[in-house]
Amino acid sequence: MNNRPNPNEAFPNPKIPSLCFIKNVVKNPRIIIGDYTYYDDVDGADQFEKHVTHFYDFIGDRLIIGKFCAIAKGVEFVMNGANHRMDGVTTYPFYVIGGDWGSAIAPVKDELPLKGDTVVGNDVWIGQHVTIMPGVHIGDGAIIGANSVVASDIPPYAVAVGNPCRVVRMRFDDEFIAFLLQLKWWDWDIEKIERNFKALSSGDLSLIRNL
């Protein structure tokens, strides 16, 4: 193919200016995004980084998103900086208010209920206005329905919706999911992916088995 999209350009399709390959626009080195993953937002797809909130350097957590993910507008990744200390009488953070209250005891990192890195696998579809909480892991091939709040891990190739987000069904049976996780088509070179568009996109699953 002579006119394939360039994974190193922000806007691959001039006919769809709302679609952005976001690895090319984020500045924070703790946001790690794979090739061909896009954010689609008519209000500024290149502003994806604004949708990663409470992301403080002193905590050091990371947002890791794999390849070929499709992320719809209004997503919010809530990072570990949103957490308050919970072992005292109050969770109220007096120390952040300022003025004389700034001398109140601030928690050290080890005293906060930190959840670790937030990780989204490869080939994940995230619907509009989904909120993803700190430390969640979403498996390869999963689908997250619109307006969901994801507060716990979602397994590979699950369809999950709601608040709190729950798995409603698996996309395929266990044997075929295991096959796909071993196949890892997203790691193929782009020429091989292009040769196998039909097998990857068709509802006839025998095509991918017979490659």
UniProtKB/TrEMBL annotation:
A GO BP annotation: response to antibiotic
Keyword rRNA processing listed: no
Signal peptide as annotated in the record: none
Alphabetized UniProt keyword annotations: Acyltransferase, Antibiotic resistance, Repeat, Transferase
InterPro entries given in the database record: Hexapep (IPR001451), Hexapep_transf_CS (IPR018357), Trans_hexapeptide_repeat (IPR050179), Trimer_LpxA-like_sf (IPR011004)
Residues that span the membrane, as ranges: none
NCBIfam families in UniProt: Vat_ABCDEFH
Entry protein name: Vat family streptogramin A O-acetyltransferase
Species name: Pseudoprevotella muciniphila
